[in-house]
Amino acid sequence: MVAKKFAQAARGVGIDVEPQYLNDLTLESLSAATHFVVITATYGDGELPYDAEVFWEELRGDGAGRLDHLSFAVCGLGDSFYPFFNNAAKLVDARLAELGARRLIDRVDCDLDFEEPSEAWTATVVNILGELASAPSHSQLAEVEPSQQDSRWSRRNPFPARLMVNRSLTAADSGKSVRHYEIDLADSGISYRAGDSVGVHPINDPVLVEAVLSHFGVSADYAVAEQDKPLGVLLTEHLELRIPTAALQALVASHTRDNEAAAILRGEDSAALTNWLYGRDVLDLLQLADLGVDEVLPTLRPLQHRDYSIASSPLVHPGQIHLTVATVEYDARGRAHRGVASGFLTDRAENARIHLVPNDSFRLPAPDAPIVMVGPGTGIAPFRAFLQERQATGATGQSWLFFGARHRATDFLYGDELTAFHKSGVLTRLDCAFSRDQAAKDHVQHHMLDNGAELYRWLQDGAYFYVCGDAERMAKDVHRALHEVVATAGGLDEAGAHAYVNNLITTHRYLRDVY
């Protein structure tokens, strides 16, 4: 969205802008450009997004030449809760300067409320470019985040949709609760494509809100200084109670009598802090110190939407969006904890405010192209949409799905549908890994390795390789397995396998939607 608005503003003053994903650029292309504008998010442990990793590998490499001719500007989109806040933008900004490029303007690091700072940055950069260009100039705009569609419904103005279906996909005796939701788009005018996501705007659990009010010893009607809403409304609809901010951590550290917690909250050991915070919410921290409402509220961040991959094709379910959501729930420190959005959808939602999050980097290829999909757990969502779409369009390309879960009997999400897709031929191959149905762990990457020769043949025949699901472990394991498959079946050394996989990435045949 930021990149799209930048391009529109630049074209409005006569500047020729070419928006591209960073992986679509080469170092040679930078040598032909005069100005380079980068807008990037940060993923994982401070890395560049998948759509930028190959470009970054080249830019930081020993073979990168001087860029003294180039002027640049960088905008980072991030979340200050995470320790590597806007690290990707910082890396690119520093490396471009190191190679001799000149900053048009200092880097801007946007937090969750990115609209105002990014718009101010855009206006300044466009103004500078406009003054520099006596004639229309050529700039390259590196767009890492996919742009939003034009719609009156947005992150700032979500559509109030009706939740039509809420049913369990897992058996009652499963160790996890995964549910299927169907949302009515009604007359919203929202149109989506297979591969897109949707942002769900939740409200906080009333039990948690009441517990916070009780902790402070005030009622929901408590008037907050400089706020036009009572405390109960703020805590329910506007403030994040699941994720403790760095500001709250610092406040608690300076007031708690728990010396061990204070030492951890000071953040000197980032790994220890991350581990300690895991599973703790705002109330858990408040219980460590005697703090007043007016001290705490300024440290809380706005309640954020949660993004979910869409599990339906609009060709099969027009006017609807389907979601596949795991309910986050656990007991810790003497009380029950629930995920903000997953708990909201599971327990309380009759209506849900939503906005579309297009994902232009996660699309189906031509109908005759083969596809390989790796989607364990809720990662199955976009691939259900892909299979529905391929069936509806009569696509002739082969398809192969690697699905994983704990137990076949209780956790085979959409098992009947996937079996039917396989039986009809829409799904050519179905490989399932049920990790706890036998003594040895069995995961999707093991099935990739077991079928490495066949998988490599598919890739050689032009297959597109998709991954959706857990970024922390699964996606990394699958990435390593893909390299091993290519090296073994292709008879390549480590460098050759790395180059092969990089080629899949830059030709948009290796696509990831992970979280």
Concise description?
This protein has 515 residues and is an alpha/beta fold. The protein is built from 20 helices and 19 strands.
If you compute it from the alpha carbons, what radius of gyration comes out, rounded to the nearest whole angstrom?
A: 24 Å
Oligomer: single chain
Strand content: 15-25%
The percentage helix is 25-40%
Intertermini distance: 20 Å
> What structural category characterises the helix and strand content?
alpha/beta
Let me know the average pLDDT.
94
Number of separate helices? 20
Layout of strands and helices, then pairs:
Elements: H1 2-12, E1 16-20, H2 27-31, E2 35-41, H3 53-59, E3 71-77, H4 87-98, E4 102-103, E5 108-110, H5 115-132, E6 138-143, E7 159-168, E8 178-184, E9 197-201, H6 206-216, H7 231-238, H8 246-255, H9 259-265, H10 270-277, H11 282-286, H12 293-296, E10 306-309, E11 320-326, E12 329-332, E13 335-338, H13 340-348, E14 351-357, E15 371-374, H14 381-393, E16 399-405, H15 408-411, H16 415-424, E17 429-434, H17 444-450, H18 452-460, E18 464-469, H19 474-490, H20 494-506, E19 510-514
Parallel strand pairs: 1-6, 2-3, 2-6, 3-4, 3-5, 15-16, 15-18, 16-17, 18-19
Antiparallel strand pairs: 7-8, 7-14, 8-11, 9-10, 9-14, 12-13
Structure commentary:
With 515 residues, this protein is an alpha/beta fold. The chain is built from 20 helices and 19 strands. It is 37% helix and 21% strand. The strands form 4 sheets. Strands 1, 2, 3, 4, 5 and 6 form a 6-stranded parallel β-sheet that branches. Helix 3 links the parallel strand 2 and strand 3.
